[in-house]
DNA sequence: CAGCATCCCCTGTGATACTG
DNA sequence: CAGTATCACAGGGGATGCTG
């Protein structure tokens, strides 16, 4: 295998690259938790379990569709549990799993960072815009 | 202003809601840093400053367009600095600011979480799919 | 109450090609 | 090397209406 055309080498590199991307857990999971709604849902559930309508109210701005979609993927990923109480009317509770709680710790830290450093970011933006705008 | 039609009341509520959303620093910043490319760029720059082409190579999968776009917004937000050295060929270095470094700490933690818990998430997914698929 | 189904638009994103 | 410009596309996400 000492001989290999440039095309073959390129193809090999590409194949390895693709495998790397698919195999790379970081990118996969990072993509999922780098989601607006994921952050908000996990943060909302961090203090205490909540019902569907509580979440809808607390997150304010989320459509039923996105809320459900987000909750389903998070349930699938073992981040939270979905508990249906078959009363009338139905009652559905969502709660973080231990896994979800460990993630919530980090996302809450990020959220706190955003709150604490908003001033600096805002100031930086104004400076930048002033120097740039025209 | 005791009299107000339903439409007016709705419009007022909407205006207040919009103002609330815009005023809320958490959502604004959270949205920005809850971005795939932001995470990757900040993580890439955390160990050491890098040049444009270094970033393009390290991140692998990002288009020039998205890379530039991401770098610009992060520069605007004071997360990183852009330094042009007018040699031939041109050389542009990107480095995290102290503000950016503090954020990098958190995002790196999230990245590590993703790496360390991928197995659990993956297992949860298989369990979920097995119970659900039909 | 807690959804699911459908429609549909619009923007973010990627590919490609060109420039200082 | 470090971008910018243009185009074309997919699909994210909202609105609406219906159900167990």
TrEMBL record, chains A, B:
Stored SUPFAM superfamilies: Winged helix' DNA-binding domain (SSF46785)
Keywords: DNA-binding, Transcription, Transcription regulation
InterPro entries: HTH_HxlR, WH-like_DNA-bd_sf, WH_DNA-bd_sf
Entry annotated with the keyword Oxidoreductase: no
Pfam families cross-referenced by the UniProt entry: HxlR
Domain annotation HTH hxlR-type: ranges: 24-122
Keyword presence, Transcription regulation: yes
A GO MF label: DNA binding
Official protein name in the record: Transcriptional regulator
Provenance organism: Streptomyces aurantiogriseus
């Amino acid at each position: 295998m000492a001989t290999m055309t440039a095309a073959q080498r390129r193809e090999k590199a590409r194949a390895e690259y693709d495998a790397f991307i698919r195999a790379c857990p970081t990118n996969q999971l990072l993509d999922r938790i780098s989601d607006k709604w994921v952050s908000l849902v996990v943060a909302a559930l961090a203090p205490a379990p909540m019902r569907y309508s509580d979440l809808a109210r607390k997150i304010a701005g989320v459509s039923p569709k996105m809320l459900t979609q987000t909750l389903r993927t998070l349930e699938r990923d073992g981040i939270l549990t979905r508990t249906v109480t078959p009363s009338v009317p139905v009652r559905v509770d969502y709660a973080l799993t231990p896994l979800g709680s460990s993630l919530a710790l980090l996302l809450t830290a990020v959220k706190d960072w955003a709150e604490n450093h908003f001033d600096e970011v805002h100031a930086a933006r104004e400076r930048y815009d002033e120097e740039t705008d025209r």
